[in-house]
What does this fold into?
Amino acid sequence: SDQAAILQRLRTDPKLHFKTSDEVEAKARDTLVRAQAALPRAFGIRPRAGCEVVRMEAHEEKHSTIAYYRQPAVDGSRAGRHYLNTSAPETRPRYGAEALAFHEAVPGHHVQIAIAQELKGVPAFRKHMGSTAFVEGWALYTEQLCDEMGLYSSDLERMGKLSFEAWRACRLVVDTGMHAFGWTRQEAIDYMLANTALAPNNIENEVDRYITWPGQALAYKMGQAEILELREEAKRRRGAAFDLREFHDIVLQHGAVTLSALRDIVLQHYTTPGE
It folds into this structure.
């Protein structure tokens, strides 16, 4: 099929993949710089803590996911860190690098988590812990936000954003398939090979993660969908007066609350007389 041919090309064409670990790291650093410069356009509240790109250590990269985020030190002695898997660069697609950087660093995990750490007048658990659906939903939401802000540098990079969307949608199927309907590990791998552009090594690591952490992967899409729905409702209620920066500040200034609490917070803020 055309889809199978396209996925095979995305997965195997050497021109669409990095050649060296240094290239993987340099792309992440460049994307972080551009995203930080664009923050004032969409955010009133911004974190004081900085963010940096750090390569994963050799002992973990082979069996780790493609990237993860580590929050800043509470005392300010260490910036937030976007840990990046630079092993086997020929399996790391160029077209997914920008979406990945937006998700893990700015305006994704770093913006949300560092702002939460810096909140005043809230309990410590609200600063340093939180709902996975909020944390991961926010980061996935920002991948789309960056598209709306014109931050993807090419149509090919936007393809990466769509590839990541397919990946997150597949998680809904694969996680529930294994934990509710008795799918085998190989069935999960085969489904993701057929429906995403992820490389086989990344798919195997992902499926093993879903096996050992039931339900976590579902949180991404569920959280993103709720944030987008609340944004549309806020636009409906405010009309031409809707301010994207105000919306983001309302979402972020309470820490990583549950989705039901977030809905209450947002709708209460955007309640107008007579409603």
In short: Residues 56 and 85 are 5 Å apart (CA to CA). The first helix runs from residue 2 to 12.
